[in-house]
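User: Assemble these into one structure.

Assistant: Restating your components, then the assembled model:
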Amino acid sequence: MILKPTTKSVKLILYYVGRISHYFSFLFLLPAFLALLLREWNPFFDFLIGFSLAFLMAKVFLRYGEKGSLKHKEALSVVSLLWVVAMFFAAVPLYLSGHYGSFLDACFEAMSGLATTGLTLVQDLDHMAYSTNFWRHFIMFIGGQGIVVAGILILSTAGGALYELYVGEGREERIFPNIVRTAKFIWTASFIYLLLGSSTLFISLKIAGMPVFKAIFHSLCLFMAAFDTGGFTPHSQSILYYHNFFLEIVTLLLMLAGTINFGLHYALWFGDRKEILKNIETKSLFITISLTWILVSLGLLLNRSYLSIFSVYRKGLYHILSAHSGTGYMTVYPSQFASQWGEVALVGVILAMALGGSACSTAGGIKALRVGMFFKTLKLEVKRHLLPLSAVVVEKYHHIKEEILKGEVAQSAFFIILLYLFSYFFGGVVGSLLGYPFFYALFESVSATANVGLSVGITSPSMSSLLKVVYIFQMWIGRLEFISVLSLLGLIYALWRGK
Amino acid sequence: MRRYLFLLLFLLLFFFSSSLWADEVSLGELVSNPLNYDQKVIEVKGEVIGDPLRDSGGYWVNISDGKGTVGVFVKEVDWEGKLQGGDYNRRGDIISVKGLFSASCVKHGGDLDIHAQRLIFLKESKPQLRPLEARKVFISLLLLFLVLISLFLRS
């Protein structure tokens, strides 16, 4: 028998969604201020409408919600519902800008931004208002750092549920025992990288002759999308717009920094440099990046995609890191993936996208920690079969500290890996049923679920609404790593059929 | 006889030499099927987008026809000054470019680009008028009024 959730539970969820949405609404004022500064009057009113709607809706949630202490399943539902609510609000100024074919397209863009995917349905991006373009990148920064991680800094009445909210957003690790300090560190580190990264990008753009204002704008947008492994760019050609090797290197380093666990950032900042050599995630990342890079390079060489060996390695490495980190920055056109790269190289890119970056980072995908655990478990099983039955076999791994691989941890990792694989396949089948070749549909599906943003050209304003909805769902479920979304869906089902 | 042979040779050169015969292609087509035009001299038309960006030995100009955007490399010696790019407030200069198209340019790290041989200025940049939409002003003021009421009710 399914138990119907109590009214108090529903009210609690509404209260916390309302509370965080209330603070989220004030984010609209930043691009509104930019629009005012640049005298972009129509976008200015678009943001005022967005702010007012978000503010009023948050008030409605708060009016019908009830304050209290959240339990685990309620906290998970808060997070997943909050992301849907945030998507609708964030889509309002995008839709009003006139650069999207429908409100669904604007919702797609908003979810892609918040989930740091980078797939886009924008039209005539090259003539978009600076403030609206800034908003696209800003929601990527907010979504990448975590709407809830931001909310945690503000919320103080959620009691023991702060950690549950934090976990619900696809993060499990505490850098500090105190979750508020952890959230503070994540934001502080991000702002320091923002200063360093955007200044370096600014210098490279200034050297190329870009005017000061535009160089500041581009460097901020590029930083937000690279460090938060998002992948939006201010212009329609992605990174190819800049034709700048130095900028490619800087974005490469930023993508790498974005894909590293914040716990590892902390260890490195405070002098524990050996951690990078011992950590299971960095080892796993290094191996999978190397292997997929070799595979892509082999594919490009066999296919004779590029005339020089330097181009093979340059294009290969950039797109492997872009795929692995979940950024989605491109220095080729989507059609070139399909026509010029060949299937072997694309298999390498699909694998890199599917595996993803580190846990507790802004990267998506299965994650290096789970990949590492998968192989550690395989090793453990092989050992068990080779050694006598009476032998006690233990497998250890190093992740910030020495840990013993426990059955339930491995089981949980396997479960999430299976869910990712199922989602990748599901999107591929839907795309295939809608008339796209399965291989390309799989590429796009993996890109959506793993929040990457690389595309072979399927994602476009003209694709079917069904596929847009499927990709929105995949981006949402992939960003929150399934459990929160499944918890919300379970709650909705229980409200409907529970007794 | 020799005269006719020269004439025949000239005509053959004219029709079959890629450097003389340039296909006019849309940028959308170029971006969608790059291999069909690889290492061919083509002619494209489009609006300059953003700012020309300096690179070693020349400048990059990105041009768009609404369906596709491609980078054009103009050698420093052929660079004749500023081009006005389009953005939110402006429609950029419209130019025609004849040049060598590469789906993966060896000189520029495998990038898809056009190396300009001739650049013709077709239409000057002009401001893009964006009249204020009264509907948006009305709705936003109405909603802001409701926000104020909600704040007042709370207090």
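The first strand of chain B starts at residue 23 and ends at 24.
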